[in-house]
Every structure is written in C-alpha cells, then in structure tokens.
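Pilot study result, target chain (484 residues):
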Amino acid sequence: MENYFLAIDQGTTSTRTVLYDSNFTALDQNQIEITQYYPKPGYVEQDAQEIWDKTFLTISSLLEKNGLEASQVISIGITNQRETIVGWDQKTGKPIGNAIVWQDKRTTNYCKTLQNQGVEKEVIEKTGLLLDPYFSASKLRWINNHFKEEIVNKNTLFGTIDTFLLWKLTEGAVYATDVTNAARTSLLNISTLEWDQDLIKLFELEKINLPEIKKNADHFGSTTLFGGKIKISGMAGDQQAALFGQTCFEAGDIKSTYGTGCFLILNTGNQILRSQNKLLSTIGYKIDQEVVYALEGSIFVAGALIQWLRDKMKFFLSAPESEALAKTANGNSEIIIIPSFTGLGAPFWNPDVKGSIHGISLDTTQQDIILASLEAIAFQSKDLLEAIRQDGAEINSIKIDGGMANNDFFGQILTDVLNVSVQRPKNIESTALGAAFFAGIGSGYVKFNELPDIWKADKIFSPEKSYDAKYSSYLQALNTSINK
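Predicted structure:
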C-alpha cells in the first residue's frame, strides 16, 4: 500500500492542501479562496471559522478524490500566513471576532507611541523585529482590549493561524505553535526561544494564554477527523517553510517568494545577523537541537498588485494573462508604480505611504501599467537585495518560488533588475513542500541530510540588460511618495 504526506498551506488569499507521495512528489491539491474583509481604511480581517471550514474541506475532499484512507497518510505538515492573529473560546472553539491579518494597520499609532517611549531598541534586540503593526503583539493587544471581559477571559486562547488550525485538528488536545511563527509575534526572545516576560509586559498581555513553542519537526499530536488517526509532525510559518522547501540549508543560501507579498530570506547559519538596514533577524528553522537563523526582507505587495489589476482595474481575467499583455507594452514607457497599498515594508518601514503611479501620459496603455507593475515588484526586491549586501552578505544567485515564479517574463525582468542569477525549481510551491519536509522529518520517515537531493532546477534566468536607469527613476518616485 502506498503512503503519502499532506501539507496544509493556509495563505493570505486561499487555503489549500497538497498531496505528496513518499518521495515528496506533488500528486494533487485542493485550493479554496478565503474571503478578505476591509471594515475600515487600514483594517484587514478574515473569518477564522471560514479558514478552518475550508481547511477541513480541502483535506477531506482531497482524500476522497484520491480514494485514500487516513492510515495511508504518514503525517500532516502545516504552514500558514504569519503574524495574522486570532482569539477563540477553548470551550466552544468559536473565534473572538475576526482574525486580524498581517497586512492590517490599525495599531500604527500604538506602535508609534511605543517608539516615542524609546523601547524599540529593546524589542529589536530581543526579537529581531521592529515596532510595526505588521507583527502580532500589537494586534493581540487590540483584540484583548477591544472585547468585553465576559468575552475575553481565562477561557480565551490566542494564537497565530497555525495554532488555531492545530487546535481544531486535534479537537482541542494540543495548544501549540512553532519557533518560526512565535518569532513573528514580537513576544519571542530569539536567543532563548522562549516567550519573553518583559515583552509580554510591554504589550500589556500578562494575563492572556499563549501556546507551547515547539520545533518545526516535532510531535504536534494527531487528528482523527478524517476516518482514522493521522500524525501531525511539521509546522512552520510560510516563508520559513519556503526557505526549507527550497533546501536553503547552508549559510548564505537565499530564496525569494512571490505570493501576496514578497519575502526574501537569507540563511545566516547559527548566528543572529543584526541588520543595519532595517531588515529582520528571525528564526529560519529548528531541527532537533540545531537552530538556524535568518535575515528577512518583507514586501507587503507583490502578487497582490497583479490581483488588484485583475479584480479592481479589470485589466485581465486571470493572472497568467498579465505575462502576454506585458510583453506588448512600450519598452520605453516611463511609468513607475509604487505599490504601497498597505504602507512600505523593508527596508523603509513606513506604514503611512500610499500607493501611486508616476509618469502617466496620454499614450499610457493598460499594457504599460502591467509591465510597470512587474517592474515595481522587481525594484522592491532590489531594495531588499541592496540592504542585504550592505549588511555584509554576498549574493550571486537567488531561488524563487510562489505563484509569480510561473511568469517567465517576470523571471527575466527580475534577473535583469537584480543582476544576479535567478533559479526557479521544478516545484515552485516550495511553501507546501517545506511543510511536507518538516512532517517527513518529524514523523521519522526521512532524515534531514536526505533532502537536498530532492531539489531540482526547472529554469535558470540570467541577466541580459541593465535596469539601472529605470531603477534610479523608481527611487526618485519612491522618495517623492515617502516625503509627501
């Protein structure tokens, strides 16, 4: 009888489950979109119950479609959108309001207040993170303060989406997270790998429940919701899962994921590299007793820009159409897009900057704007790469993944803008693959040193032209937007 792995990939815009054979070859998947709610400017929410219902549906229907029994599944791995936070009642499992999504900016003023109190240096030293509404702690404080005591009490559990899904899968038996998700809350000390009591006090969260912190490949309990007992043996935040799925196991290895946002992560080995350019020091992964650290640059809008062109501007019906349309654009167009729809992430960290389009003329076409959008994503990536170089890293090539990695035209723009080799793997869904890898190690089915041979390149892009002049124009437009 064949054996399989399941990887739950709960992202910002969709939930999906991927089926892998015992050699980690993707066989099938089921994906369902998640509803986004924008109740006020700067607010971004999701219904955690909807996330769970659709997660359950993707798993059950995938097993049914492939005629599989629970006994054939070796283990489940979970990966998730990071920083998104939710509270729920441990007696009923009912969420306390909507989940607050990582893109949400409602706590901007609170974070500025903390900055003015001079505490950011301590936060950076302990967590590797800046004081920004992007991270979970200020969101968690908002939930804790927003609801009445009869709603938020000792029975309320809090956690990132991984924790909520694990609790649901195990029917309340396991309340836990992993080191990579914990590292994005602003409450984990990345040196001790424990919840930091001083930080908990700083964010006024002394009385709340926080989950147990586990390794990425670990025993996370089991689920019996699908006709039998299935182990859950792997868990990681989506970007760390992608780092692992891309087999970036050596210090200096780097990957960039192009999903809703763009997240570029450099493996820094067993050393915490402290950035001088507002990049984030974080946990890469923990296997057994080995902790691997990473340096990360986060861009809030990448694929979301293409989604905006599709859904709001109606430039095309499906994202893949953008490639053909961009190819017909005026290559000499001076259009520059600053896609800061939810503020600027690394290395600028300015939540107040709005999106803008520069250089429009009467000759501007939809195709020109689509091309400029692809270029804007590449320019933001160059911002990150230059910051990493200034922090002392030497970068010769980058592994890419995520939905936009399918776009060959974008891949060529990216390598031209960055002026480094860009490698795309055969399996661009590195996030789900990383979760499956963790599940494989955590279940004892595979050893860590057996994984590098699994990664195979599908296409390698090499620079063909210079984008230096247009990148300079982009920086001028960006400075204009920042200084408004």
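One observation from the pilot: The first helix runs from residue 48 to 65. A full batch analysis is planned for the follow-on phase.
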